[in-house]
Amino acid sequence: MKFPYQTSQFLQQQVSFAQWQQQVALYRDFFISQPQQRWLIFFEDSYQFTCYFFALIAANKQVILPPNGQPLQIVQCMEHADIFLGELSGLNNTDTSSDYLTFNLSQLEDDIKQPVDLTNNPLSFDKHCQLVFFTSGSSGQAKAIEKTFEQLIIEVEQLELTFAKLLDTKQSNSSVPVVMATVSHQHIYGLLFKVLWPIWSGRDLYLKTFAYPEHLVHEIKQHPKTNIWLISSPAYYHRLLADNVLVEVKEQLQALFSSGGPLNSEAAIAIKDSLLKSPIEVFGSTETGGIAWRQRATAQDDVWHVFSGITCKSSHDEQCLAILSPYVDASTWYQTQDRVELIDKQRFKLLGRADRIVKIEEKRCSLDEIGLRLGEHPWVEQAFVLVIDAQGHRRTLAAVVELTTTGKEVFAASSKFTFDKQLKAHLKQYFEAIVVPRKFRYLDCLPYNSQGKLNKKQLETLFD
Amino acid sequence: MNALSEEVKQLIIDTLDLEDIEPADIDYEDALFVDGLGLDSIDALELGVAIKKAYDVKIDNNSEDSKKHFYSVKTLCEFIAANRG
């Protein structure tokens, strides 16, 4: 496989695609000479990452991507790797680097002297080249997920097919959009949307990490008249609600992408109202890659569109979604734990996670459904329901609740007992008393991490 | 009766691991189940066992009677007072 387009610019670094390829080819030639096969790679800097990443793939090494650069995370992931390539940020009070082999980056810097002859020795990639991702399993132990380079590229080509036309027809001035991102390239969503897709489709990249939306606005203003595709996550969009600084550059924001976790319908619509377009939400996981997408027109619009090339079915008993996807395995059904209502072959509604269905005293209930019902109460912004197995007491449900402004006012003016009681009364309209949460905790906001996931263990400790 | 009702209220709270609630929050005459305190059928079972143990009373075979006895703190206290061993 070779790069289909040769036009990308790395705007922040002011590097052309040709210059970038030189860098990649130099690294490739060095990596080919190295005996190690399995390379764990971590860089904070996305530009550096792209150079080393493509060089390793071109050298046909197995590329292993840790979800973050925390010292112990790296140690854990090194069980799957022969050598570590990368830079860990300064917070190494626990220096664990002596526990594993680290590639000495200065060897490379010294070597860059003469250009590589790309005409006779072009960059090419073995489609079977292997990558390993990690997903934080709910048990706490990171789980390794294997992919081939070809699977990622098939997905990237599908993204182009699905979205390029949709987005380009909306804008009359057809300047090529620049891709900017707030998410990390170390995760599959960031790797696909912020790195592989623009490079593979010849779009310009602005590779820089934006910690605050203000920084993003500043950079966008430096490139007036340029259309921007923003690759971001619910954690980021939800925080825009209080103070949406992106309004200043809304004319330039041609597309907003969101993935990694659920985006509130209220947030999606508020963004649509203020930025003129609602985010394109992508539903999937590290294991499955993208499965479906949607761009809400209204808060009630909850239909997901399956990417073409993926076949769906749902089981009769639990309505769990199964997919035949070229991003996973085109010939074997992959069973998800997501419950769906299939509307037709290419559309579904999500009903919640099957592993969030529990039995309380023989009563089956969906924790997500109870959480969603709680969220309908005017006092409740959102809620997460979990199972508590207290010692010496029966298994019961508990709810961690984020209150609305009204909710906070009422809470301040009443006792927790009567407040809890009214939320319980609301739920009893739908559920039997047995599955109504008995314990409530109120937080300013639910502690979603930057990947849009909630740490269940942490939430459980609220009830100890 | 007053001391007993305080005791019963505390027993309910402890047995059922109720949170953020003082004996004073439990109304003497209000329904314990469904509406009122909103206890469920498993709570009824657990409370039944606890009351039996604490006061050595026998729960009626007649479910209608039990329902009446377990209706409120007041009815529970009357039941205990009349049947305790």
UniProtKB/TrEMBL annotation, chain A:
Alphabetical list of InterPro entries matching this protein: AMP-bd_C_sf (IPR045851), AMP-dep_synth/lig_dom (IPR000873), ANL_N_sf (IPR042099)
MF terms in GO: ligase activity
Residues of the AMP-dependent synthetase/ligase domain: 12-294
UniProt entry tagged with the keyword Cytoplasm: no
Keywords: Coiled coil, Ligase
Pfam family membership, one: AMP-binding
Coiled coil (residue ranges): 142-169
Keyword Coiled coil appears in the UniProt entry: yes
Protein name as catalogued: Long-chain fatty acid--CoA ligase
Organism: Litorilituus lipolyticus
TrEMBL record, chain B:
Pfam family, one: PP-binding
Record SUPFAM superfamilies: ACP-like
Keywords: Phosphopantetheine, Phosphoprotein
Domain Carrier: 2-84
Highest taxon of the lineage: Bacteria
This protein's name: Acyl carrier protein
